[in-house]
Amino acid sequence: MKIIAGLGNPGSEYAKTKHNVGFMLVDALAEKLGVTEWKDRFDAKIGEARIGTEKILLVKPQTYMNESGQAIGPLMNFYKSALEDLIVVHDDMDIPAGMIRIRKKGSAGGHNGIKSILAHVGDEHFARVRIGIGRPLPGWTVVNHVLAPFTAEDEPKIREAIAYLLPAVECIVRDDVDMAMNQYNPKKQKKKKAAPAGGEQEGEAVNA
After folding, report:
1. Where is this site: Stabilizes the basic form of H active site to accept a proton (predicted)?
2. Disulfide-capable partner of 7 in 62, 89, 95, 113 (CB 3.0 to 4.6 Å)?
């Protein structure tokens, strides 16, 4: 069984804020999979579904972002889940708005929700699905930034990112995170080397 946890803050006042893109993706996945019933357990909203033959739990912690681990840690203990079965979806300020990155493991990178999960599960070996929200505007604090709605310019980018990630999350469940990283992470272009006289050398795409 896989646990797909989207991070965010509970309450209608936070529903459309940048910090809640994890909730947004889980809600979109729930709609795609026909999940209509959410149970309140372990300080979280939990929905059950299947992707292929794999049972999954869709999880939205209700502890507020900075204490996300208080919901996810006990949930994983109850189901005796391995870390490799956890997929966490969250916002990332270090990525431009609407860009995505899938990672196999890693540190918190300054994200308080991930810090809390790491503190409760004790290991970094779980998949991350990161949705970029960009950096704060000049004069804005981080809190102002993450708790503000997306701009009219960025909102369609986020919708596109979530739609793009739905099959990516399904790929993690059906295959593995390596496959999803290879297929869905953006590709980088190598810098072009100096072209020899009389010809050009093309850049080569590599995995991000």
Report:
1. 91
2. 113
Q: Is 20 annotated as a binding residue?
A: no
Active site residues: 19
Please state, for a pLDDT cut of 70, what percent of the chain lies above it. 90
Within a domain: 16: yes
Is 64 annotated among the ligand-binding residues?
yes
Which residues form the domain of 57? 2-184
pLDDT digits (tens, 9 = 90+) for 50-64: 999 999 999 999 999
* CA 133 vs CA 8, 64, 95, 138, 178: distances in Å: 13, 18, 6, 15, 24
Residue 203 lies in a domain: no
Gap between the Cα atoms of 192 and 78, Å rounded = 52
Has residue 62 been placed in a domain?
yes
Which candidate, 49, 17, 21, places its Cα nearest to that of 149?
Answer: 17
